[in-house]
Structure formats: C-alpha cells, structure tokens
C-alpha cells in the first residue's frame, strides 16, 4: 500500500461537489432528501457487495492447491451467485421503490389544489408563469423561479421548440419538458435560500447555457413578490428617472419581443424583463447581471450564447445600448 496523492485529489474533488447551490447531495427539499438518501443507501449496498466479492476472492485463493469438493463448490455458487445477490438486490430495489414520490405520505396525487407555476422551456431560456386558482397568470418572469418554503408546488412543464429537462438538484429529481405535452412535477422546498436549476436534456448549441436561479422565500415574502403593492414595482418601473433608457428600449423595437410591466413594452416572444435589475444573471444563468455584461449581450448575444434567438443589436449607438442597460439594471 502506498499513499496516492492523485486518488486523494480525485476524492476531494468528488466530495467538494457534494454541497452548494446545485447539488443533489445537499438537499433542501423533500424529494431531494429521498434522492440523497437513496444515493447513500445504494453506495452502502454497493460497498457491502464489493466487500463480499473481495472476501470471496481472497477466500478462493486458499483453494489453489487443494480443490473444493463438488458439493461444497456447488453450495458456494448457490449461496454467493444466486441467494446473496437476489436478496441484496431485491432489498435495494424494494427500498428504492418505497422511496418513490408516489409512495410518500406527502405526495398530492395529480396535484389538485397545489399552487401552480407554469414553466415553458425554450431555446435557451425559461418562461416562468405564476398561476392563480383559475389558471390566470398572476405574474410572469424568466430564468428565475420564486417559491414559498414548506409548501408543495406543482410545476406545469411545457416546451416550445424541442425537448428540454427541468432540474433543480437541491430540490428534487428532473422532469422532461416536451413540445405538445404537459408534464407535472411536484416539489417542496424545506429550506429557504438560493439554488440553481439547469436544463438537463441536450437541446441545442447553448444547452449548457440554459440555467435558472431558484429563490425559496418565507411565505409572506413570496406573496409580496408575487403581488407587488401597487405603489412599488411595475408602475414605478415605467417612471424610473432613467427615462432615456426606456425611450431607447421602445424606439429600437425591444418591446416587440420583451415585456416590461407598466410600460408599452408588451412583447411575448422573448423573456419578460419586469424587475430585471434584481435578477442575479444575464442570459439564463450565463453571466452575472452587470451593465457591462448586459451591454455585451445586447450587442452580440450570439457570441455569449451561440444559437440564441435574439438578434444582434451591434448597430445601436453605444450611448443607446448603455442607456438601455442602465435602465434594465435599474428595474426592481
Ligand atoms: Cu434546454 Cu438543454
């Protein structure tokens, strides 16, 4: 035996990914808890099997010179080759089945009565709509999911173009979003905080640049975000002191694709930009939300996100792009 720094480095690297905003092994929700538990039970089961196989291997070495009787060899094969794996694997599979969401006491069937958040995956971003009991849209956002803590939420998953997959590792398993189909995913966050979600199905050139943030808030904070007081957000967004930015935004036709509540910009093709200044990232989790990144993205989106549907606005005057970026960054 000798100390191997390389394998130690690999172990540390693997373990270092066990915590953080995007780890299935650092659960912050009921489903994620089950996934993490299943993982560790499977690791333990696999470890036990490995130890038994290694034990049998060492044990077999003793019979190099004095072969076993046929009867004894047969017994070992029946026990080690049939009985042991059948019992251990059946135990593990039964446990895995018992951990399935549908077997949990908190599983809400088809999800009637749960709060619904409709997610539409598009190349390469996420449209997020918060629905009321009647299915009316209360608020629309993009690339950020707000949800209340300790409440089961039904994510209604749709896709506009190709198959994507909606995954928040800290909160639970993934579910595909498929064009022409509606998939339901129930998640329940048990800890407030910021998490990261990703697209988990290859969907084109910018698949890796299709992430979103998840903010799990206390119930009241979530309600305040969902239904901003008339005096705060949308309306005042139109009256921000930086009106030159809004003018440039509208004059250059940005409002044909993007909506900003409380303004004339009501486009429904691209991401809704209401409250954009508070989003942590630009371009669906690609870059931190700074005016510098915003300017680069508006001028040359394809350089930041290959295959993005937003056209380049390199022809705008620098002053206009800067004004638009400052305006968007100021939206609360
Ligand atoms: Cu969307 Cu990968």
Note down, in words, how this protein is organized.
- The protein is of the alpha+beta class.
- It folds into 3 domains: 17-103; 115-226, Immunoglobulin-like (Sandwich), CATH 2.60.40; 233-330, Cupredoxins -  blue copper proteins (Immunoglobulin-like).
- Helices cover 37% and strands 20% of the residues.
- It is built from 9 helices and 12 strands.
- The strands form 3 sheets. The protein has a 5-stranded mixed beta sheet with strand order 3-2-1-5-8, with no helix packed on it.
- It starts with a helix and ends with a helix.
- Dinuclear copper ion binds next to loops.
What would a concise description of this structure say?
The protein is 37% helix and 20% strand. The chain is an alpha+beta fold.
Oligomer: single chain
Based on CA atoms alone, the radius of gyration comes out at 26 Å
Bound small molecules, deduplicated = dinuclear copper ion
The CATH architecture name of the largest domain reads Sandwich
What's the arrangement of strands in the largest beta sheet? Answer: 3-2-1-5-8
First-to-last CA distance: 60 Å
- Strand elements, count: 12
Here the CATH topology of the largest domain equals Immunoglobulin-like
Helix content, binned percent: 25-40%
| Helix-strand category | alpha+beta
- What would you call the shape? elongated
Major sheet summary line: 5 strands, mixed
SSE order, one letter for each helix or strand? HHHEEEEEEEEEEHHHEEHHH
């Amino acid at each position: 035996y000798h100390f191997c720094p390389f394998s130690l480095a690999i172990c540390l690297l693997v373990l270092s990914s066990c915590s953080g905003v995007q780890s299935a092994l650092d659960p912050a929700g009921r489903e994620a808890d089950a996934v993490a538990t299943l993982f560790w039970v499977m690791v333990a089961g696999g470890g036990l099997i490995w130890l038994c196989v290694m034990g049998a291997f060492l044990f077999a070495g003793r019979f190099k010179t004095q072969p076993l009787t046929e009867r004894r060899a047969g017994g070992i094969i029946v026990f080690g080759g049939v009985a042991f794996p059948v019992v251990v694997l059946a135990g593990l599979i039964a446990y895995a089945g018992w951990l399935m969401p549908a077997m949990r006491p908190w599983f809400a069937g088809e999800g009637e009565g749960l709060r619904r958040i409709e997610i539409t995956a598009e190349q390469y971003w996420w449209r997020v709509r918060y629905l009321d009991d009647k299915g009316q849209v209360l608020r629309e956002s993009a690339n950020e999911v707000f949800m209340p803590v300790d409440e089961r939420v039904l994510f209604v998953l749709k896709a506009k173009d190709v198959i994507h997959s909606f995954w928040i590792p800290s909160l639970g398993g993934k579910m595909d979003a498929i064009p022409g189909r509606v998939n339901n995913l129930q998640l329940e966050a048990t800890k407030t905080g910021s998490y990261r979600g990703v697209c988990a199905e290859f969907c084109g050139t910018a698949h890796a640049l299709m992430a979103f943030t998840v903010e799990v808030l206390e119930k009241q904070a979530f309600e305040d975000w969902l239904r901003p007081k008339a005096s705060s957000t949308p309306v005042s967004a139109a009256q921000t002191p930086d009106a030159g930015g809004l003018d440039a935004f509208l004059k250059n036709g940005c409002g044909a694709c993007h909506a900003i509540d409380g303004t004339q910009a009501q486009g429904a093709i691209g991401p809704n930009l209401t409250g954009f200044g508070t989003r942590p990232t630009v371009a669906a989790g690609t870059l931190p939300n700074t005016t510098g990144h915003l300017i680069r993205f508006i001028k040359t989106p394809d350089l930041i996100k290959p295959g993005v549907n937003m056209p380049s606005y390199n022809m705008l005057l620098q002053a206009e792009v800067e004004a638009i970026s400052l305006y968007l960054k100021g939206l609360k």
